[in-house]
UniProtKB/TrEMBL annotation:
Swiss-Prot/TrEMBL catalytic activity: ATP + protein L-histidine = ADP + protein N-phospho-L-histidine
Domain of life: Bacteria
Region (Disordered): 1-24
UniProt-listed Enzyme Commission number(s): 2.7.13.3
Molecular-function GO terms, alphabetical: ATP binding; phosphorelay sensor kinase activity
Source lineage: Bacteria, Pseudomonadati, Thermodesulfobacteriota, Desulfobaccia, Desulfobaccales
The protein's name in its UniProt record: histidine kinase
Classification via SMART domains: GAF (SM00065), HATPase_c (SM00387), HisKA (SM00388)
Amino acid sequence: ICPPLPGAQASGGGPAEPPFLQGQTSNAEGRVHYHLAVPLTFKGQLQGTLCVFDKITPEGDYQPFDPENRQLLFTMAGLIVNALENALTYQQVEALAERNERMVKSLTALQEISQAILTTVQEERLVDIILQGLTQDKGLGFDRAMLLQVDEATQTLKGWKGAARDEGAKDLPLSQTLFLPLSREIPMADWQIPISPGLGAMAQAVLQMRPVHQPPQQPGAFPLGLEKFDAKEYFVVPLVVKERATGVLVVDNQASGRPLEPERLHALQMLATQAALVLENAHLYSTIESNNRELMLIRERMLESDRLAALSGLASGMAHEIRNPLVSIGGFARRIAKLVEKNSPLRGYVEVIQEEVSRLEKLLREILDFTGENLSYFGDHDLNQLIADTLLLVERDLESSNIKVIKELSPLLPLHCDDRQIKQVFYNLFQNARQAMHEGGTLTIRTHPLEKEDGLYAAVEVSDTGGGIPLDVLHNIFNPFFSTKDYGTGLGLSIAQRIVARHYGQIEVKNELGKGVTFIVTLPIAKYCLIKSPK
């Protein structure tokens, strides 16, 4: 079977005979060679010829082909054409069946993935399900899948999460593997691709909001800086919501090297359309949930503020009413103490009165600190020095309680504050730690600068090894008059929190049951902070 012979002379064919080609040629020795060719016609189109050469006689000589030979060759050509047509038809049917099988597999996988992503509204969980569906053999079956988000502020694509195929789960049904955690996650924290024309297929997919097939023969498949991922051919499909690209899905067959068939791009587009919607809905749900939590927190703070305001007014009024007679009692008690002899039986009673007056005076000072009625005197102070001064006040108490003190104080800029009030904060925290470590332990104090969005802060961490705070009372520790001890006013942490708030700072607690508690106080260094310093 061959194309028509060049230079051959056509002997034609009559009106009743199909066309044929018959001729002869001579070699260098003068020997004559004969040939005969008949057409192979597929569905009215000439596709080739059936050629025979040199008919040999019993004596070994060559002789021309006769009409009977031509008829035989025509018959054979007809049989060959029928056989080839049947083979071609079978091949087409087989290819169509394989394509239909792949299509059914893809549609089945898409249905299972669609059902799976409707089971959650958590963004990270949705991303895991989508990546599993793209890479599992019973899913869409790509070797790798990566998801990138559009950062509108910087006009870049930032890596979110990627995954490679998990061969260990190939025997499980897809409905189970979709919910497995990603076992071969691709690190994408450093992915940052500018969204500009001419900067690769990913940027092109976002700008044009249509899928892109990056062929293997084009150099620079991945953008500059991401060459280590060694992608030669890949699909990029944008995630589009309300005519706005929110991200892209990138898939390839980097490990197996299998080509990416065009029909698989259609299945990927179908998944990307639904993925874009569910991820957008999950993001909106997360935003609404966060706003609701913030509103609830604001509401609780407002209620707490009203309650504390009423409590402060009551406490302030009581303190003023008690202070005046208490001053008189204390003054007369001290005067009587000077008049009573040391061995007098009245001496003990007078000393008890003095001790109780001192205790009540301390309680009144705490109440006035809590209500904020004491005057504030702000200036620039060394926070580390304030901590050192406060430690001197509790040094004897800590030693008697067998508590070791570890100081890790970093250099800090001067803090604009009321030094007396800030000392009161740390005094209360140190006393709390001492009382928590009644069998001894370690008190660790760390200071360090802290950068926040609104400027530079000083951070102080006060840690103890007292075993932590029970979870059932943890939420009450900053409430006024709340105490887990049989003694004390329960105002220590409340006063500390109020003083820190007056300085536009924060006090947080990190509780580790069985280990201890760390109170973290952050105070703004006003010179480098956007907020105004308190007057």
